């Protein structure tokens, strides 16, 4: 049937959308594709743990993956990675991100590139190394912002800040010019992203809705007033939100 791509063509198309591979030509992508090993993850499957010391770069071709740590028996989500990007890059630096887990949020397809292969690629194509540095800087900035929020803000302000970040990274324009986060996040998942318990997230959502900053429709988050959400996100001080901090 005309119009259908072969598995190789589909893989090359997916690789061409990966941020760090943008500088590569079709021929260079073909060579990379031949070196990759493929892994399929089911929803909620844990892909690596703190015991995994392998130095590999993971290319997320489809799906979503959560990177998190466990602190005092509580999970703290460091990042949620979407299709078209990479993760595991911290394992390739001197500052190894220890104690991290990676878990598929949805069914996901991952390609794996080992350290030797990546180093050869960077030597041959320095632009890839520049892209990785930019990626590292952006992720470190997000981690720092998340940490500052947990230390300085109460739960509603943390939640408002997180929603703004999710809108920036994955938001789409919905009806009536509202902004929508197209992926579903449970209150428990959001709690692991802001260092709060599920019950505190539920209370925080109620406050954001009372301020007419957000709405919840069919389990998705809609931003109805960006300015109000930004104002709420700037609030510092813990207040009486009944939530203990995650250190």
Summary, kept brief:
The chain has eight helices and twelve strands. The protein starts with 6 loop residues before the first helix and ends in a 14-residue tail after the last helix.
- The backbone outline, from C-alpha atoms, is globular
CATH class of the largest domain: Mainly Beta
Report low-confidence residues grouped into runs of 5 or more.
Answer: none
Structure summary, number of beta strands: 12
Total tally of structural domains = 2
How many helices does DSSP assign? 8
CATH architecture of the largest domain: Sandwich
Helix vs. strand class: alpha+beta
At the fourth level of CATH, the homologous superfamily of the largest domain is: Jelly Rolls
> In which range does the helix fraction lie?
40-55%
- How are the strands ordered across the major sheet? 1-8-3-6
How much of the sequence lies in strands comes to 15-25%
Q: Distance between the terminal alpha carbons, to the nearest Å?
A: 56 Å
Computed CA radius of gyration, to the nearest angstrom: 19 Å
Largest sheet: 4 strands, antiparallel
What pattern of helices and strands is seen along the backbone?
A: HHEEEEEEEEHHHEEHHEEH
What name does CATH use for the topology of the largest domain? Answer: Jelly Rolls
Query: Could you report the average pLDDT, rounded to the nearest whole number?
Result: 87
């Amino acid at each position: 049937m005309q119009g259908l791509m072969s598995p190789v063509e589909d893989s090359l198309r997916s690789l061409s959308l990966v941020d760090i591979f943008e500088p590569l030509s079709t021929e260079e992508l073909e060579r990379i594709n031949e070196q990759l090993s493929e892994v399929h993850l089911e929803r909620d499957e844990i892909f690596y743990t703190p015991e995994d010391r392998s130095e590999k770069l993971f290319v997320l071709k489809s799906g979503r993956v959560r990177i998190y740590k466990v602190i005092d028996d509580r999970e703290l989500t460091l990042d949620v990675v979407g299709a078209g990007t990479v993760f595991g890059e911290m394992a390739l630096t001197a500052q190894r991100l220890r104690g991290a887990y990676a878990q598929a949020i949805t069914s996901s397809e991952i390609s794996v590139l080992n350290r030797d292969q990546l180093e050869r690629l960077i030597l041959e194509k320095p632009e890839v190394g520049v892209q990785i540095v930019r990626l590292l800087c952006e992720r470190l900035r997000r981690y720092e912002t998340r940490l500052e929020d947990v230390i300085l803000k109460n739960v509603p302000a943390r939640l408002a800040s997180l929603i703004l970040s999710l809108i920036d990274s994955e938001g789409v324009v919905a009806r009536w010019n509202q902004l929508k986060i197209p992926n579903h996040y449970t209150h428990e998942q959001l709690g692991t992203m802001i260092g709060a318990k599920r019950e505190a997230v539920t209370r925080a959502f109620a406050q954001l809705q009372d301020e007419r900053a957000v709405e919840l429709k069919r389990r998705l988050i809609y931003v109805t007033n960006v300015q109000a959400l930004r104002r709420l996100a700037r609030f510092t001080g813990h207040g009486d939100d009944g939530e203990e901090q995650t250190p």
